[in-house]
Structure formats: structure tokens, C-alpha cells
Amino acid sequence: MRADRLMAILLLLQQHEQLTAADVARELEVSERTARRDFDALAMAGVPVYSIQGRGGGWRLVGGARTDLSGLTASEARALFLVAGPASAATPAVKAALRKLVRALPEPFRVQAEAAASSLVMDPQRWGSGRVEHRPPPRFLDELQDAVIRGVQVRLGYVDSNGAETERTIHPLGIVAKGPSWYLVCNTDAGRRTFRIDRVSSADPTGDPVHRPDEFDLAESWREIADEVERRRTPLEIQATCTPDGIARLRMVLGDRLEVGRSTTDDRIEVVIRGYNEYALAGELAGLVEWLDVTGPTGVRNRLASIGNALVERYG
């Protein structure tokens, strides 16, 4: 990863007035000989570095020169180049800007940066599942994002899941991409609301300033919204105990629908599991009886017993 090292050396030179090969070798865990070759490569690439010979010598940037990457670590820069690749979900404008950044790099950086931009294929489809639906960005995404950035209210037309169209003035706070869908988080006269942007029928900025709550954090707000949606999608909770070696299996099968509690006196672990209804949840848990003992509600236990009886009757 030579380009990675060269970028790291350039960033180190901007942090320190002078560096020796020994300094770089110690910082990047390479040999001093490798560090000296890297300094020579920077100079040959046109980076304004020069060496001072003798005691107290080392390498410096001419006139304290700096690069546009001064705020990035090497790994962060490569992450940006990955975003510019054809598999990325970034907008064309973002990709174009990042490719310009790639072209502005010195030659040793550019080769691997361009390689990074084409090194990743994103396949969100799970093994054995149907095709993943890829949707183009919704119609009013740019207008709503601009309103969020400028901090102006919007007169929003919206069509709900039943086909009813309404209009209201909203205070846009942020935009979230969830899988193939985009959501607008905003304040309204009725409180905090979330709208699917593909259902927006009109978006007209009013010019009036947004009233943004103090210390509002979009990521934290979205976590609260997502948790509430998950609770509505999985309203049923069951109680059970699990063997310690079964917790990892439950996490793999149930994900965020599993809540792990305290240990019991018989060396088992209390758990709470959320599901859509008794029938669906019993079907999921039937294959976990080796580790799991459902203690309630009674309806789920009865359905598990029914599944067991049916299996015995059919397979003996």
C-alpha cells in the first residue's frame, strides 16, 4: 500500500516542521530504507519536499506548503475514492467532485486512488432472496435537501398510503436514506413527523426560517423513529430463557428483536423477543428449542406445542 504510506507521510510533514526517515519508520512501522525511498518518490512526483543533510537534518515541505487533503488521514481519503466508484449510491455531482479530487493528486497517489474508485461492487441482495429493488432518487429530493441546508420552511403536498392528498407547511430538519427509500424528518404544527419523499407531490420553499430545536441531532432522531417503527411492526413480546451458548444463535436469527436480560439461578439467561404475531413468532422459534425455553405468553407456548405435535405426527 505504497500510495497509502506516501499520503500518510505528506500529512505527517504538514503536522511537523521536519521529519527524518527514522521518524517515519517509527510512525508507519516500516524500515528506514523504505522511508527514504518514499521521500524520494514524493519529490519525484512533484510534491515540494526537500532534504537537509547532516546532523539535525531531515525532510521538509518547501515554504510550509500544504495540500487540499490536509484534514484527511490516508484511510479517510481512500474511503472518499471508494464513494466515487460506479457501485456507489452517491449522486452524480458527488462522484464528479471526488473524481476531480483524484485527478488533482500527485501521480503516486492517483494510481491507487483511481483503483479504489473501481475496486468495490455492492450487492445488497441476500443469498436466496428475491431481487433487490433499486429506485431512482425521488422527484423532490434536491428541493427538499436545499431547503434543509438553507433552513427555510416548505409548503409540502403529500399523498398518504391511502391515496389521500394533503398540504401543510413544514420545518425540514434532515433527510434519511433507508434502503431504497428516502425520508424527510421535519417539524409540523402537529409535532415531529417523517414523510416518504417518493410520496411528496409538491415542495415550495416559503423563504421563512426553520424553527430548529436546540441540540437537534438527525442521527439520534432517526434512531428513535426507527425504533418506534420496529416496535409497531413487531408488537408481540414473548419471555423466554436461553442457554449461554445459544445467545449467539438467537442474535443471528433475530437481530434487533432480541433483548438479553440477566442470568437466572439455573445458569440460563432471560431474554425478550419481539415478533409480528403468535403464529409467525412460534414458527421462527420452533427451530431454536435446543437452546430456548419460552415462558410466556401461553398462546405462543401452545402454538409451539402444536408445531411439535404436527412434526411428530408427520415424521415420527
TrEMBL record:
InterPro entries: CBASS_pafABC_assoc_protein (IPR051534), DeoR_HTH (IPR001034), HTH_11 (IPR013196), Tscrpt_reg_HTH_DeoR_CS (IPR018356), WH-like_DNA-bd_sf (IPR036388), WH_DNA-bd_sf (IPR036390), WYL_dom (IPR026881). Keywords: DNA-binding, Transcription, Transcription regulation. Residues 2-67 form the HTH deoR-type domain. It comes from the Bacteria. Pfam families: HTH_11 (PF08279), WYL (PF13280). SUPFAM superfamilies: Winged helix' DNA-binding domain. The keyword Transcription regulation applies. GO terms for molecular function: DNA binding; DNA-binding transcription factor activity. This is Putative DNA-binding transcriptional regulator YafY.
